From TrEMBL:
Positions annotated to bind Zn(2+): 27, 30, 46, 49
UniProt keyword annotations, A-Z: ATP-binding, Cytoplasm, Fatty acid biosynthesis, Fatty acid metabolism, Lipid biosynthesis, Lipid metabolism, Metal-binding, Nucleotide-binding, Transferase, Zinc, Zinc-finger
Annotated zinc fingers (C4-type), start-end: 27-49
Function of the molecule: Component of the acetyl coenzyme A carboxylase (ACC) complex. Biotin carboxylase (BC) catalyzes the carboxylation of biotin on its carrier protein (BCCP) and then the CO(2) group is transferred by the transcarboxylase to acetyl-CoA to form malonyl-CoA.
Occurrences of domain CoA carboxyltransferase N-terminal (ranges): 23-280
Protein's UniProt name: Acetyl-coenzyme A carboxylase carboxyl transferase subunit beta
Catalytic activity: N(6)-carboxybiotinyl-L-lysyl-[protein] + acetyl-CoA = N(6)-biotinyl-L-lysyl-[protein] + malonyl-CoA
């Protein structure tokens, strides 16, 4: 009696071709399955629903500044461990792991560059490094960049992408950075300097409560989460139903917190236009 071939017997003849890992991705906004290369070519914006994906510091610099014009400042600053902090691992080990994983030395990158031929001081925070939380090095880098912008009479642009507030691993030394960067911005403003703050998803905690909210002009990307405490924390604390879209760019624009919402493809041109309008 002959037996029909089993599934395993035929399996080798009909092995389906495997799609390389990472070719496709899912949109967090519309849940569509997207071709990753197409999304990257679209500045990491979903071609279906215009959802703006989080981008790295390196990608943000490439998107906004003229090619090969960015000069990083203070790259060798490293955080200390003033508290000997240890949760699941010692704080220095955590920092080292984040540096290895992200290729960044800290959650902030600052320096000078050009946008359409206009020289400026440029800074940004990256949420991939301990959620972009503001430790002593982040505050020091931003403060020094602000002081250089004041000294050289250059416009200042900072792109915020921080889901964390003050970095608990550094205690009060982290918390005091909010006051330090705010004081540096006050001096920049008193000297007649221009500061444009760009808020991206997410901009929360101590970053939102300090320099990110102090721009002469405040721009934001569409549907960015912007606020101090997260909406779930607020809802659980005050025990009320929050308005629809609470803490989004659109909600904050409607309530006067922002000057304009700008699509990522238009941000570079918008920054160049604004700097041209407001600087001699």
């Amino acid at each position: 009696m002959r037996h029909r071939p089993t599934v395993n017997a035929w399996h080798g003849h009909f092995e389906p071709k495997r799609v390389p890992e990472g070719v496709w991705m899912r949109c967090d906004g519309c849940q569509a399955t997207l071709f990753r290369k197409q999304v990257e070519e679209n500045l990491n914006v979903c071609p279906e629903c215009n959802h703006h994906f989080v981008v790295s510091a390196v990608d943000r610099i490439a998107q906004l500044l003229d090619p090969d014009t960015f000069e990083e400042w203070f790259p060798d600053l490293r955080p200390g461990d003033p508290l000997g902090f240890n949760d699941r691992r010692p704080y220095p080990d955590r920092v080292h792991a984040e540096q290895e994983r992200t290729g960044l030395n800290e959650a902030a990158v600052v320096g000078q560059g050009f946008i359409k031929g206009i020289r400026l001081v440029f800074g940004l925070t990256d949420s991939s490094f301990i959620m972009g939380s503001m430790g002593s090095v982040v505050g020091e880098k931003l403060t020094r960049a602000m002081e250089e912008a004041t000294r050289q009479q250059l416009p200042l642009v900072i792109v915020s992408g921080s889901g964390g507030g003050a970095r608990m691993h550094e205690g009060i030394l982290s918390l005091m950075q909010m006051a330090k960067v705010s004081a540096a911005l006050a001096r920049h403003h008193a000297a007649g300097g221009l500061f444009i703050s760009v808020l991206t998803n997410p901009t929360m905690g101590g970053v939102a409560a300090s320099f990110a909210s102090l721009g002469d002009i405040i721009l934001a990307e569409p549907k960015a989460l912007i606020g101090f405490a997260g909406p779930k924390v607020i809802a659980q604390t005050v025990r009320v139903q929050l308005p629809n879209g609470f803490q989004t760019s659109e909600f904050l624009l409607e309530h006067g917190f922002l000057d304009r919402i700008v699509h990522r493809r238009d941000l570079r041109s918008m920054l160049a236009q604004l700097i041209g309008y407001f600087t001699p």
